[in-house]
Amino acid sequence: MDKNGVKVYTKLDDGSSIKYFKGITQVNASASEVVAMIKNYERYPEWVDAVSSARVIKRESDTTYYIHLKVKLPFPVSDRDIVQRIEINQLSDTTYYIGIHTVAGYIPEEKGFVRMTLSDGHWNITQIKDHETEVELVSINDPGGSIPKWIVNMMVTDSPYKALRNMRSIFAN
User: Fold this and answer.
1) Type and span of the H or E element at 57
2) How do residues 92-130 score in pLDDT, each as one tens digit?
3) What domains are defined for the chain?
4) Distance CA 132, CA 127 (A)
5) Do 163 and 45 contact (CB within 8 A), yes or no?
6) Which DSSP state fits 34?
7) Most buried residue, 9, 45, 71, 153, by most Cβ within 10 Å?
């Protein structure tokens, strides 16, 4: 997929029935502004597709967080939730790597939600000019439950496209 300044690629790795995605865009912001937006987890519902709530459940340090996300899916599919460990690494003044790792059993499961067991990936954020930054999001997500993998793979480009498009739009204003 390549539209509205966002490119999304997919790949099926050996041994996996679920596709990875890689989404890439450029935004009118510094790398530190992009990181600040990504770290503002409570605002995810405003720009991350299908996220209905997000909260920090533990802050280990200034660069390591545990977050709980709730994901709203269309009827008749049950909503999902997940706990992720986020690690922010500043590689240089203008380059960041943010790791995203699923954490099982960190908090009790909530009634009415299917707990996702896989949502791992990373952000690569590289400032190109003063106010121009390349943003790359790579991830693999298994919503769990009884959703057939072929349906998951068919929809794999939607969420990264919408999130990166929304990020571009926010920084364009």
Assistant:
1) strand 51-59
2) 999 999 999 999 999 999 999 999 999 999 999 999 999
3) 2-172 (3.30.530.20)
4) 6
5) no
6) H
7) 71
